[in-house]
Write a structure and sequence with these properties.
7-stranded mixed beta sheet; binds flavin-adenine dinucleotide; globular; 6-stranded antiparallel beta sheet; binds iron/sulfur cluster; FAD/NAD(P)-binding domain; single chain
Length: 498
């Protein structure tokens, strides 16, 4: 194993991009390995099918544990910048209730031993917000103005969202195909490129990591490097003082399992919990057909949201306005009031009226009953199981969105099935090793020098869009690693002498 770095980061999305960029800024030698391709604003064009093929993972499906519900479809990016390169860039902080749930789920504590709360993350949230240039979006277009009376009629209100988009945003609506102007900030154009163009960060795209190498050198199991498939088709091994896995909730648990972290845990709860407590933030688009042109596909997708029902006791869901899917997604996901897909003449009619639709996105705070695992054939698998309370939340959010659209004057309201773009959990972070996979710094309880730095550490599903929190947790992990108190990095002098 000739090559060696202070740090290897697996996955370049919200978590991994921040960890790699900030550690490179601190002077550590960093290798960033990404399964997907390296594309930039110069490559991004509004061809939905092409983007889905080139910079998205194929959709993944979670199967219901019981009952005859349809599978839950899950989306994520597969390129440098990860899902931040293809997302809508809404930037929201966790709520007080979110932090309370984190502590309740896994005993997560802050540095002083108190329940983990905003004081533990605030400096990192602010640091990330500053780097991404988070700002309020008050530039509401017709498709938002059309639904405002509906919210008012139901006694609810819309507020501007904050987002990581700068003033060059031309509201072209192609965020999901990658921003062609760099107005949309991603970890690609804020954390990775600055360090990469200066030669301070070694970036290898198109290099999926197959396993983390774990050895016991006398002091218990520890990560010593990774094995990845290079773009030359060969397996390569690289050593490191620390490995940070940040492949996302749909890949990190399986990578730990394939690497033998469960076995290293020797039957301990922390090993057995890998892949458990996955949350989906179940979402649905509810789309109303109006008499006036809305052009909800030619806007910055989400400028407003309704937070009246954010707390669990108020309903446990958030509604965003206003957007519709791009044409292929719209045509393939449109269902009627009973949840039956549209086809034939009815679908053709709906598509001819595409410009007249505007839509609301509902998102529910679920209770993390999902699982991610590797089956006997070595394939990644996922399952979900709603309890009664989650079903009520999902149904009420749909009902509310339908009523808003009808009260706003929609002639008819359609909907998609339940989907997930905000998967979280699976490698729960906690101070109690019996209830978590990684500790409060993100280090695996079972394997030293192995950290998890992505959305899979989130102990309970956030009530808000998760990327800002995942980035702040990444920044917190980077600060801890850069601080050096763990003693895992060779000193620069020792490296130079070797
Ligand atoms: C359509 C869409 C819209 C969204 N909009 C918003 C929004 O407006 N606001 C918000 O806060 N959140 C949004 N999200 C969610 C948000 O982007 C994600 O929650 C966040 O990016 C997750 O961060 P992560 O680091 O866990 O994973 P990711 O960002 O998904 O990064 C994981 C990376 O790891 C790579 N990888 C996987 N396996 C391997 C391997 N074996 N080897 C090497 N690399 C690997 C992947 O290719 C990927 O690049 C959206 C998501 C989607 C899909
Ligand atoms: S709407 Fe704005 S942020 Fe989104 S792709 Fe277009 S310019 Fe970029």
């Amino acid at each position: 194993m000739g090559e060696r770095f202070d740090l290897i980061v697996v996955g370049s999305g919200a978590g991994g991009g921040v960890v790699a960029g900030e550690l490179a800024d601190s002077g550590a030698s960093v290798l960033l390995l990404e399964a997907g391709p390296h594309r930039t604003a110069a490559d991004f064009v509004r061809w939905e099918a092409r983007a889905n093929h080139e910079i998205w993972w194929p959709p993944a499906f979670a199967e219901p544990v019981a009952g005859d519900e349809p599978p839950l479809i899950m989306f994520r990016g597969r390129c440098v910048g990860g899902t931040t390169s293809i997302n809508t860039k809404v930037a929201l902080r966790p709520s007080a209730q979110d932090y309370e749930k984190w502590h309740a789920a896994a005993g997560l504590q802050g540095e002083g031993g108190e329940p983990f709360g905003e004081p533990d993350l605030l400096a990192h949230l602010e640091r990330v917000e500053q780097r991404l240039g988070v700002r309020e979006r008050t530039d509401w277009q017709q498709c938002v103005k059309s639904v405002m009376p509906g919210f008012a009629a139901l006694g609810a209100e819309l507020e501007p969202v904050t987002s990581y988009t700068d003033s060059n945003c031309m509201r072209c609506g192609s965020c999901l195909q990658g921003c062609p102007t760099n107005a949309g900030k991603s970890t690609l154009n804020t954390y990775i490129h600055p360090a990469w163009v200066d030669g301070r960060l070694e970036l290898r795209a198109g290099c999926p990591v197959r396993r983390v190498m774990i050895e016991d050198r006398g002091g218990g199991s520890e990560a010593v490097g990774v094995e990845y498939l290079g773009s030359d088709g060969e397996l390569h091994r690289v050593g490191a003082g620390v490995v940070v896995v940040a492949a996302g909730t749909l890949a990190t648990p399986q990578l730990l399992l394939r690497s033998g972290v469960r076995e290293a845990g020797g039957g301990s709860p922390s090993g057995e919990l890998i892949g458990r407590h996955v949350g989906f933030h179940p979402a649905r688009l509810v789309e109303g057909l109006f008499d006036q042109v809305q052009d909800a596909h030619m806007v910055y997708p989400i400028t407003a949201h309704c937070m009246n029902f954010q707390r669990d006791e108020d309903g446990g869901f958030v509604v965003e306005a206003a957007t519709i899917q791009d044409p292929i997604g719209f045509a393939t996901a449109l269902s009627d009031e009973r949840g039956m897909p549209l086809w034939g003449e009815e679908l053709s009619r709906a598509l001819r009226s595409y410009r007249y639709y505007t839509g609301l996105l509902t998102m529910v705070s679920d209770q993390n009953h999902g699982t991610a695992w590797v089956d006997e054939e070595g394939r990644d698998r996922y399952s979900f199981q709603w309890n009664e309370r989650e079903r009520v939340q999902i149904d009420s959010s749909l009902q509310f969105a339908r009523e808003v659209l009808l009260a706003a004057g929609a002639r008819r309201v359609f909907q998609t099935g339940v989907l997930s773009t905000h998967v979280q959990g699976g490698c729960r972070m906690g101070s109690d090793p019996d209830r978590s996979v990684v500790d409060a710094h993100g280090e695996c309880h079972a394997v030293r020098r192995l950290f998890v730095g992505d959305g899979s550490v989130v102990p309970r599903t956030l009530s808000v869009n998760p990327s800002l929190t995942i980035m702040a947790l990444g920044s917190r992990l980077a600060a801890y690693l850069a601080g050096g108190e763990h003693g895992y990095f060779e000193s620069r002098d020792a490296r130079a002498a070797a």
